[in-house]
Amino acid sequence: MRLRHPAVLLAVCLGYFMAVLDATVVNVSLPDMARGFGAGVAGMQWVVDGYALVFASLLLTMGAVGDRWGNKETFVAGLGLFTIASALCGVAPSIGALVGFRALQGVGAAVQVPASLALLRHHYHDPAERAEAIGVWAAATGVAVAAGPVVGGILTHAFTWRSVFLVNIPVGVAGIVLTLRHVPPVPRHDEGHLDLRAQALGIAALGALTFGLIQGGVWGWSSPPVVGTLVVATVAGALFYRGERRAEYPMLPLALFADRTFSAGNAVGAILSFGFYGELFLMSLFLQQVQHRSPLQAGLALLPQTAAVSVMNVVSGRITARRGPRPPMVAGLAVAGVGLLLLARVGPRARLAAIVAPLLAVGLGSALTMPAMTAAVIEHTPRERAGIGSAVLNASRQVGGVVGIALLGALIGTHGARGPAAVEHFVSGFHKGLALAGLAFLAGSVLSFVAIDRDRGDGEVGSALPPSGASEAEGAPRGS
């Protein structure tokens, strides 16, 4: 199938490429950053999660902003802010400043990513064509994931870790120019007011949870600050849910979750990012801090996994267009789960040849799952709520990634140990973390089999929220 609107697709893919590249390009540079700033494992976690935390926290609001103010306009604004923040990261004078500028990058990513998927939803009306377009969009993720560790390793080896942020600048400028010239505007959907109270509670809940998980690995899980922040996270989360149930114009329309496929797809998105990004964080540190490989060697060692993502994303889009999302989701999560469980058996002296097959399984399985999961959620979102629907999906994925890096990273904390004891503690936590991620993927495979709509999606899929002017009967969900 020859896809229409190639300029729209290219512009959208460039924006998403940059957001994902910045998550993966940083991983192999983390040890060099830590040495330069004198930071430990917690500092490295904050460099990654400072970005992902703000990204995840603002996605729902920014999805609603895109629907109200125009997805083209918010896409361009997000790209611009992300590009400026990347330049600031490249000149950061301290670990605190770097984490702050990473958070600013997260704001830019949160503005542009929901708008990118909403633009696809508006410009590709045929479900089969839209599934293929989403496959190409997801392939941009695959290329970014594949290029990230290698590009990060090359830039860090040849120049400095600062160059991994500066590489975003030309990509961002190209995306802005292409969007302004070739992407037509889409209709705006103005419904009520932005729920700022819910936004504040959401940030408090996710921020406190992330802080508790990261610092729990440093200060101990019974530390009063850790226990206190986890309590704050629980209370804020409960207040957020209660407020959204009662709000006239909620930030998170809970009625969307009445659709079984929408709910299960978002759960799978969280599981996928929890395992994939948590594993990528652990493997990057394992290869350098335990096996003492250079950043370039670590990036090349991860290439089987990341390159598989690039190739399989397009294949998944085509399978989803023909067979529906359930088969690739069930198979992909199962294959990746087995790969993670095999990685959990890798020892500190393992040869690279021993980890190639498990890494390949994780990459292939994850990439087989992601476009199918994305298509399942978007097909069960009404067109005029495409911005908030894509924001919910991306928020689920980002929350999963934040928790994965925070929790699995906490397991490898050395708690002040030195020498062989530190390595032993790291390896033990490494094995536990990968085993946990593998079991989560297998649970996601079962959930996909049970809850994802088996239909191929040849027509417009209904949603729990009826379109404007439609009756409840006309907007009733399928597959619920």
Mind sketching the topology for me?
Layout: H1 6-24, H2 30-37, H3 41-69, H4 71-90, H5 95-123, H6 127-158, H7 163-166, H8 168-182, H9 196-219, H10 224-246, H11 260-290, H12 295-301, H13 303-323, H14 326-343, H15 352-379, H16 386-411, H17 419-451
Which characteristics define this entry?
mainly alpha; Growth Hormone, Chain: A; 17 helices; 0% strand; disordered C terminus
Concise description?
With 480 residues, the protein is an all-alpha fold. It has helices spanning 6-24, 30-37, 41-69, 71-90, 95-123, 127-158, 163-166, 168-182, 196-219, 224-246, 260-290, 295-301, 303-323, 326-343, 352-379, 386-411, 419-451.
Structural account:
The chain has helices at residues 6-24, 30-37, 41-69, 71-90, 95-123, 127-158, 163-166, 168-182, 196-219, 224-246, 260-290, 295-301, 303-323, 326-343, 352-379, 386-411, 419-451. It has 17 helices and no strands. By secondary structure, the protein is an all-alpha fold. The protein folds into 2 domains: 6-194 and 251-451, MFS general substrate transporter like domains (Growth Hormone, Chain: A, Up-down Bundle), CATH 1.20.1250.20; 195-250. 60% of the residues are buried.
